[in-house]
Amino acid sequence: MIYLLFGYFATVSIVAGVFTIALKHPVHCGMSLLTLLLHVAGLFVLLNAEFLFAVQIIVYAGAILILYLFVLMLLNLKTEEQFLHKKYPFALFAGIAILGEILILIFQTPYGGKMGTATTGVILTTGPSHAIGLTMFSDYLLLFEIVGVFLLGAVIGAIVLAKTPSSPVPKADGSN
Amino acid sequence: MIPLSAYVALSAILFMTGLIGVLIRRNFIIILMSVEIMLNAANINLVAFSHYLDSMAGQLAALFVIAIAAGEAAIGLAIIIVVFRGKMSTNVDQINLLKW
Fold first, then answer.
1. Which of A8, A16, A40, B82 sits between 20 and 30 A of A172, alpha carbons compared?
2. Which of B4, B7, B10, B52 is the best mutation test for A, with the most CBs of A within 10 A?
3. What per-residue confidence (pLDDT) applies to B100?
4. Can you say whether residue B96 is alpha, beta or left, with left for phi > 0 and alpha for psi between -120 and 50 degrees?
5. Structure pTM?
6. What are the pLDDT digits (tens) for A128-160?
7. Scanning every residue of chain B, which has its alpha carbon at the shortest distance from the alpha carbon of A22?
8. Partner-chain contact B47 A49, CB within 8 Å
9. Cβ of A95 and B16 within 8 Å?
10. CATH number of the domain at A2-112, out of 3.40.50.720, 1.20.120.1200, 3.55.30.10, 3.30.1330.60?
């Protein structure tokens, strides 16, 4: 059963990823990206990461993708004639060749390493969100704070960039 | 039990899909979407190793990657809007002011 689920999620995410970069209309690409994100969330469930599953659905599919679709709607893009790079076969060939080499290396690698303490049993007894919260607010507190400052900077930067530039010469009636 | 290499291979395939997308597409918004695919591939990798090595660190890193992706999308789309206002296009071939 778990093989079936993994096969389904993996296949659909790869196909959706290929559609994302291959379809012509940007909105169709966005929909394919949504499919990919949802199926990657399914993979997270298979990997016992329920909290990340929720975050993936809420933040990626719910916030980031909606942002993309809003920008697509506001810009009202027309499908361009030349939507691929002129020399795209070279990039395609190089990418597939590199992918083949990486896959060969991946299947030859003996995986191993120092085992941690957060086994599946421990996570199931305390709950996945609890386990993540304990780690985040003890060992990774500084990273957490840095991400907070980063997001504040991103919000301010986005507002400043997307603000309608006011005309440098003030109008006669005093309004901006 | 699914072998770890299956997850890593899936992650590699998705990553290369995103990389090829960045290389061949000319629409700025699609290029940002391809970057999101690459970030997702990295997330799969991190969570898979976190599961197979019984450690929480990978999931935390994936969480931070999602936060960074949100910031990246916000800033990237703001830049797209600014460029679109000036050039009326999102084709990256037309953004060549700094080209040698």
1. B82
2. B10
3. 72
4. alpha
5. 0.88
6. 888 888 888 988 999 999 999 999 999 999 888
7. B21
8. yes
9. yes
10. 1.20.120.1200
